[in-house]
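Here is my example:
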Amino acid sequence: MYGAHAIEHGTTRSGRWLRERRLRFTLWIAAFEGLLYLFHALNWWAAVALAIIAVGFWWYVGRSNRSDTLRQLSWIFGASQLLVLCVPLALALVKAVAIAVIAILAVVALFFLFKERS
């Protein structure tokens, strides 16, 4: 049969709908919370605590729950919170690279200043 799709055992209509869109939801939630972190409305430790709670909920409740909808929602919750933790790490990395570039430019400028003879 061409074009026929098998429905996975144990899934529901809402669970399948969430599964198809869970990456999109995860990215939007993480983007919104990442902006909250960048504008200092969300504390780093609050983000860490929320990520631990979200992943713990997914690990102990969501992964093996009979409700397909709860499994998908817990996955979205856990993945989005882990992505939010990547925002400060990326910010720190960009900041370190910017500082390194400025330091290299300063050393090069000093080299040319001391090299010049009057």
Summary: The chain is about 80% helix and 0% strand. Residues 13-91 form one domain. Residues 68-115 form the longest helix (48 residues). The mean pLDDT is 89.
